Amino acid sequence: MALHSGTAKAKDYLKAAQSAVVLTGAGISAESGVPVFRGKEGLWNNYRPEELATPEAFMRDPELVWSWYNMRREKLESIEPNDAHGALATLEESLDDFTLITQNVDGLHRKAGSRNILELHGNIWKVRCTGCGKIERNCDIPIDIPPYCDKCGKILRPHIVWFGEMLDPEIFGNADAAVRKCDILIVIGTSGVVQPAASMARTAKDAGAYVVEINPQVTPISDAADLSLRGKATEIVSIISLFDTEV
Ligand code: NAD
Ligand code: ZN
Question: 229 CB less than 6 Å from ligand 1?
Fold first, then answer.
């Protein structure tokens, strides 16, 4: 299908939708310069993210894990949201019922102006106490290694859902409810390998939603999508944005 007719169709569905959900993954931040995990650039000092972003790795060597997060914080500090993040923030303004579900931890959606965001995997700019559970925003670069809780003295960890950990049930419940009741789900830049985000496209479709995928590559989500737009997030999201229909 020609890209143009596809984007026109997606835009029509969006315009008619009572309720819209967008699910984003690392691909939407790739054009801002944030590396995706499953590419060659996902390596750090010969470690793979799967070896560092785990509770076991943190118990074994918290300083190593925090060094990796410090490196990621340093890189993110100078990174700005791109046109795709911006177009989603604008889209939220023009729709009554809009939910943005993201697997990203980089905080770029909020920086771009999105408000109704469900961060499935946490946020790299937050820390959580391993003792008392207190969650705090912390934008130190670099963060002291290892950081300690000022309330109970226990070690702080990144407020991130690591491999093998459960999602926050409240955040997941809200995301699942939004996916089940939406008229359109747009999935952008996720490889569809990580659950449960990977199954959200199927859930939405089974509940009757129109599912659009935006990704330069075919993914396991492509099968469930009514429309697959093969291309970069910045190009396509800007085209399907409803902004120009509002004037
Ligand atoms: P992934 O790395 O597994 O896959 C990225 C996907 O984005 C691929 O399918 C790729 O084809 C696509 N992509 C690449 N460039 C794109 C572009 N310009 N426009 C649209 N799509 C593009 O990412 P994932 O599925 O989100 O899973 C990775 C996990 O790692 C997530 O759980 C996430 O929490 C974490 N992660 C987060 C960040 C971040 O916060 N920016 C970065 C890397 C990984
Ligand atoms: Zn504490």
Answer: no
Q: Whose CA is nearest to atom 18 of ligand 1?
A: 232
Note the ligand closest to the C-alpha atom of 103. Answer: 1
CATH superfamily membership of 3-34+81-121+167-240: TPP-binding domain (3.40.50.1220)
40-78+128-160 falls under which CATH superfamily?
SIR2/SIRT2 'Small Domain' (3.30.1600.10)
pTM value?
A: 0.93
103-118 tens-digit pLDDT = 999 999 999 999 999 9
- Among 115, 155, 118, smallest CA distance to 133 is for 155
pLDDT band (50, 70, 90) for residue 39: low
Q: Are 54 and 132 in contact (CB under 8 A)?
A: no
